[in-house]
Amino acid sequence: MSTNAPATDSPVSLRNATVRGRLRDLSLDLRPGRLIGLVGPNGSGKSTLLQVAAGLLPSLGEVRWSGRLVDEIAMPERARQVAWVPQEARFEFGFPVRGVVQQGRYAHGDDEAGVDAALARFDLGALAKRPVNALSGGERQRVLLARALVTAAPVQLWDEPLAPLDPRHGLEVLLLAKELARAGGTVVMSLHDLRVANCLDEVLVLAHGELRAAGKPETVLTAGLLHEVFGVRARTGETLILELP
Amino acid sequence: MTAMPFIKSEATRGRMLPVLIVLLVVLAGVSLVLGEIAMGPARLWAGLTGTDAEASLVIWQLRLPRVLVAMLTGAALSTGGLVMQAYFRNSLASPDLLGVSSGAAAGAVLIISAGWAALAIWVLPLAAVAGATLATLAVLALAKRGASSERLLLAGVALNALLGAVTSYVISTGELFARSSQLLFWLFGGLEDRTWLHVWAATPIIVAVALVWPLGRQMDLLSLGEREAQSLGVEVRGLRRRMLVLATVLAATATAVAGIVGFVGLVVPHALRLAVGPEHRRLVRLCVLGGAAFVLACDLAGRLAGGLRLGIVTALVGGPFFLWLLRKRA
Fold it and tell me: Looking at the domain assignment, is residue B2 inside a domain?
């Protein structure tokens, strides 16, 4: 996965990233054009890893974006490079949904490029004027994803985007993530539902703040590893499969 | 807020600015005209232009300084409240509830009792800023940004009690003749006997408001979360520092010239947010005007009620409003 020299062609590369008690000596290079899943038990460091990669959480070690140290990149430029979606957001104030999505354009001179398209894409057209703090958890999540989308950042780091979504919106988000990756972007999403693993180009498995395994889902997610990391017995067989019509 | 299913129309929101300007002008006019020596608009004009000596004295030396201090105090407290609410991401944060005003009062009282306040005009405001800064730092230590309302308010309760005790102690050990009115002033603000000296001492408010003015958009992003704001391109660390300094200076300067005037920083931003939505660019402008108008109106009401102190009037209005807010959140 990673040698010790940072890869300059990698949009995001970590070297020995360490956050006390949460992440231990973690090195990896994210590759462009991939949809990457980040899995691991609760408390394994998934959110921490995403925040460190996004340059939002200081860590020991190095974080580089396309070869440049993230600390040396100005905030607005960072926002144009990497978008981050938090696991959940608490909204104290009732900003209209459209206004929250448009915040994604802050680093682009606060224009409105792509805002309406993102609202439509996430089924938020009818909610555009609603105060964001009056929405349901799933609706709020779609607002946050739409905001990340309008940043047009080539690297998208999403923290459990699927968890609060209904099956249809979940599938649509997966489809979008795939499209972004096909278009040359790098999409990393943490997730718990391993049934979507077949959609992923790559899986990173975290346990106890360490990178346990990385690679194609079919080679990485073996019954042995699932048992070891999650303490579950994996069985293949008849299962419910949902698809977009 | 949550009770509001849809944001108000742009037309309604646009109307707030002219409405507040007219309200402010009317309130200022009425404040200048009313008083022991009543005068009509003609005499007011004669007084302002100096053609009527008695009216001129009353207006220029008594009423105009009071009106100006009232407006500056109101603008400072409501804008300071708005900034603190964005900073703490909590619409219940305000300089008085968090103990920052009490810190300013304690600082001022300590300097007065030490006999240093008369050294220069800026000594008292500076002492107030120092006291307010210490109180702000204490709040930060007790309740982190994004802390629950309970934690934030409890920190404020504790600080208010502690700093109020400091103020009361210092005044009660001072010279007897000065005690009662001084104590009242620093625990319940008022605008009696304000002079041009107080107007000059309040000028940092104008500077601080001017510096808050361009931060509106960034405050929007920050009020939705610190990491979120940073990920969207806001220089969060610098912004936070600036907001904290400005809110502290606003609250401290207002307290230095008018004593502790409670609830303005809570009521005005909240009412305006209900009226026009949460966008800070718009709210900053409206808070300046709305705060000035609110304090002028409260001062006027107190004068008409036979000399009720400003701090008591704002508490009478703000207390029930605060309780209503708490009930709504519960």
Answer: no
